[in-house]
Design brief:
mainly alpha, Methane Monooxygenase Hydroxylase, Chain G, domain 1, Phosphate-specific transport system accessory protein PhoU, cytoplasm
């Protein structure tokens, strides 16, 4: 590549990275607003989430097109090609995280529009906070090229899975004790499931960061091996 082409490639790559981080910030806001809307059925927040979902979709299309142009115009080195491939995969997970946040907002609207039988709202705030932290840390790991932080996100997914199972047990108990709560409890299960899926997407993105930085595919290798590979150590035979 000529120096001019190098500079153009670097600028294009930085634009992709920057816009992806912007997209992530929008999804973070969507998750926060969707959860904040639950206690009082705040329809203003619900509408904000729905509007932001359009912005997320716009980012996805624009970043995807830019990656295709970069690949067509340049011949990326191995590390730069890994970055582009990783972002392309992460883009799907980020867009789906936005979809899940929009599903939460839709469930909130349904719960309050139909004046469903009130049941105690199980505490999803802590689960939402954990999921929000996972997404934030995955973005931070991407921005800083930090595989160690990315491995922490992968480990965090286990705690979110535990919270999802606990929420499911609690809601099933409500439905068994009082059938009048079934409709609302189902919506709450829907919300908890959406949070759990966002956690899965954050984990996927964190795994992509490790691939991007270390060149190691840590999918399906187990948390301990993920942490080893993130540190640059050999993968253990035990998994």
């Amino acid at each position: 590549m000529t120096e001019h082409t190098n500079k153009q490639f670097d600028a294009d790559l930085e634009h992709v990275r920057s816009q992806f981080l912007q997209m992530g910030g929008v999804v973070e806001a969507m998750i926060h607003e969707a959860i904040e809307a639950i206690p009082a059925g705040d329809m203003t927040l619900v509408e904000k989430v729905r509007e932001r979902e359009k912005e997320v979709n716009r980012h996805e299309v624009e970043i995807d097109e830019r990656i295709s142009l970069i690949l067509a115009r340049h011949q990326p080195t191995a590390i730069d090609l890994r970055t582009l491939l990783a972002v392309s995969k992460m883009l799907t997970d980020m867009e789906r995280s936005g979809d899940e946040a929009e599903k939460i907002a839709t469930a909130v609207r349904r719960m309050y529009e139909y004046s469903q039988q009130q049941i105690p709202l199980i505490e999803l705030r802590h689960m939402a906070q954990n999921v929000g932290n996972m997404l934030h840390n995955a973005l931070d790991a991407f921005a800083r090229l930090d595989p160690i932080l990315a491995a922490q996100v992968v480990r965090s997914d286990k705690e979110v899975d535990k919270e999802w199972k606990a929420a499911l047990r609690n809601l099933i108990t409500y439905m068994m004790e009082d059938p009048r709560t079934i409709s609302r409890a189902i919506d709450m299960i829907f919300i908890a499931r959406a949070l759990e899926r966002i956690g899965d997407h954050a984990k996927n993105m964190a795994e992509r960061v490790i691939y991007m930085v270390k060149g190691a595919d840590v999918r399906h290798t187990g948390v301990k091996n993920t942490e080893r590979l993130a540190r640059g150590e050999e993968e253990s035979a035990e998994s």
